[in-house]
Fold this protein.
Amino acid sequence: MKILVVNGPNLNMLGIREPEIYGRESYADLEKYIESAAKELGCEVEIFQSNCEGAIVDRIQEAYGKTDGIVINAAAYTHTSVAILDALKAVSIPAVEVHLSEPMEREDFRKISYVGKACIDRFAGFGFEGYRKAMERLIRSNQ
Ligand code: DQA
C-alpha cells in the first residue's frame, strides 16, 4: 500500500515554533518517525511538506491513480482552504486528517476544519503518534 503524507505550512518549523504546543522535536525527527512507522506497518510512504496552498493542491492532484491513501496535516490551511478540500474530493483517495495538537481545545478559529470534510477519520492531540494512527486507519480501510 502506498501512502502520501502531506504536511502544511510552518510544520517545517517544528522544534522552533511554539514548543510548548508542538514539542521540541524537529521536522526531520517527524519525517524519521513517519518513515520508521511506515516500515513497521509494511507500507510505502512519501512525505511532502509545503508552505504554499497551491503546491499542496498540486501534490494531491499528482497522487491521483498513484497513491492508495493520504495522511494530511494541512496545518493552518485546515481551517481556511476550500481548495485543499476540493483537491481531496477531486482525487477521491481515502484521506485521514492529523494534527499534533488538538485544535478543538484551542482558539475558536481552529474549530472549523474544511479539510476534515473530505477525510474518513481524524487523529488530533497525539503528537507524532497521530501519523501512525492515521496510517493504521488507512491500512484498515484498504483491507
Ligand atoms: C496543527 C494545528 C493547526 O491549527 C495549526 O495551524 C498548525 C498545526 C497541528 O498539527 O496541531 O499549524 O495542524
